[in-house]
Amino acid sequence: MYITITGISKEVWLMKVLGKKKALDFVKKHADSKKAVEALILEIEASEWKTPLDITTRYPKASIIGDFNVVFNICGNKYRIWLKITYQNGVAIILKTGTHKDYDKWEIK
């Protein structure tokens, strides 16, 4: 996609989010997370992340684990969303959504 700002064109590759069904299924069980989950997905899709620093600049409390895993805290740290990011392809894959208790059982490497 190209954007033009005051006569300057720039190629922009916005993130694509895969695995949204996992997040939407979670929202069905935890209705209080709906706005936060939907807002996070929309923000990811409007982002152009090239490195983990791009994420932590916007989300300082996001946990970067290894080279490609990111865990976001939502709803005041009540819930977590685990994504795998492939920066070079501009893809964010939702691997798991869960409560803080669920997160304690995840084996993120």
Percent of residues in helices comes to: 25-40%
- In DSSP terms, counting alpha (H) and pi (I) runs of 4 or more, how many helices? 4
Proportion of beta-strand residues = 25-35%
Q: Based on CA inertia axes, which overall geometry fits?
A: globular
Describe the strand arrangement of the main beta sheet, using strand numbers: 3-7-6-5-4
Structural domain tally: 1
Quantity of strands, as a count: 7
Class computed from helices, strands and strand pairing: alpha+beta
**Which architecture would the CATH scheme give at its second level?**
2-Layer Sandwich
Termini separation comes to 33 Å
Q: List SSEs in N-to-C order.
A: EEEHHHEEEEH
Radius of gyration: 15 Å
